[in-house]
Amino acid sequence: MKILVSGILAGAYALAMVASAEERGSSALWPRHTIDSADKSMGKLGADGVRLADADSDGLLDVVTGWENGDAIRVCLNPGPEKTKEPWPGFTVGRVAGAEDAVFCDLDADGVLDVVSCTEGKTRTVFVHWAPHPGGGYSDSASWKTESVPVLKQQQMWMYCLPFDVNADGRDDLILGSKNEGATVGWLEQPTQNPRDLSTWRYHSLYEAGWIMSIRADDLDGDGDLDVIFSDRKGNSTGVWWLRNEGKAGAPETGSIFAKPERLGLEGEEVMFVDVADIDGDGRLDIAAAIKPDRVALLRQPKDGVQGAWRESVQMINVPQDRFGTAKAVRVADLDLDGNVDLAVTCENAMGKLSGCFAINLSQTDGKFQAIGYRDISGSEGVKYDRMELLDLDGDGDLDLMTCEERTNLGVFWYENPAR
């Protein structure tokens, strides 16, 4: 009798766990709030990426986006929690074709954030959109000036930009990644005088690339300075790579503060956008990577440090292809406030009834992670989503999800987390 009761209880527990996972996967969709809508007449077609910074110095994070299928480079100013569900005040800082990335950066050190955009297609150029100097009317589109960087003009299909002081001279340089023929990861060196003279900027290659997706700055080895992590999805060098900060300029391998690029893992995988976070709570930074078409990889930092064997700690989490599109980007956070790590995932190719944005609830047992539930966020609207940011936009204490959608022109928007 005791054995029979135990069996019944065990079976009931298993059914409860399955029911819990199913319940998590079928909860109501997250409400969507538009930040900047598509508008062909304004060059706003095919929003491609969201990058954040406090552009107007009000303590709130604003967003810049390049509209790839139009030509607008747009800044939208965060109106604060009370108005964040309404369209945000926005303005165009420049118009360039084929934008793949746009990022804030104060390149001339005047205290005002400029914008840098990267383009592919026929344009294949990096542009600086110079903001008006202090007091010049930041949100006045006519006050902005767009110039191309001569040394990079029509040289490569530029995909991503990370502002970073690469030679430790106190001025921001630009780390850039590109794709296809002649692709590289390299750095654009700021001159010692007059940064607005773009003819004096110089490019230094660090790595021959296939198709760069992410470039991140994080202190991966915990030594107090920022390293760079990047992902390459195509060619002979696919995987996740590390540029270790050696703490001084002029490293013999690169002529910068970086050591020679080192691959950490995922060789042979089509690695899309990555996130860097302490996934397992051991105090060391790990890496999560979206793997096209149908997985998320968790690379946990070895106990002996970054230069240990990362491949021994890789775990793959499945993305069910009957419910979701192909994996594009991933972020790590506790989305439902239950104290456990979750994964937010955006997708491409979310055709028909497939969802393009969802969350994975994780459970950790004996050092191993497993998916215990998949929660749809977006529903079937949208086809091609991009990188995302997690931040509390409505001030209620949980993390909302900001992203954009390129194919059906949902524009730039955020999903409201219902946890609170």
Task: Please describe the structure with a list of short key phrases separated by commas or semicolons.
mainly beta
How large is the share of residues in beta strands? Answer: 35-45%
**Which percent range fits the helix content?**
under 10%
Largest sheet: 4 strands, antiparallel
Shape: globular
Number of DSSP-assigned strands = 28
Question: Distance N terminus to C terminus?
Answer: 45 Å
Q: What's the rounded overall pLDDT mean?
A: 92
**Order of strands in the sheet with most strands:** 1-28-27-26
The stretches of 5 or more residues where confidence is low (pLDDT under 50) are 1-26
The structural class is mainly beta
Helix-strand sequence:
HEEEEEEEEEEEEEEEEEEEEEEEEEEEE
What does this structure look like?
The chain is mostly beta strands and 420 residues long. Helices cover 6% and strands 41% of the residues. It has one helix at residues 2-25; strands at 32-36, 47-53, 62-67, 72-76, 90-95, 99-105, 114-119, 126-130, 145-148, 157-164, 173-179, 184-189, 202-208, 212-218, 227-232, 239-243, 262-265, 270-277, 286-292, 295-299, 314-318, 326-333, 342-348, 357-365, 368-376, 389-391, 400-405, 411-415. The radius of gyration is 22 Å and the shape is globular.
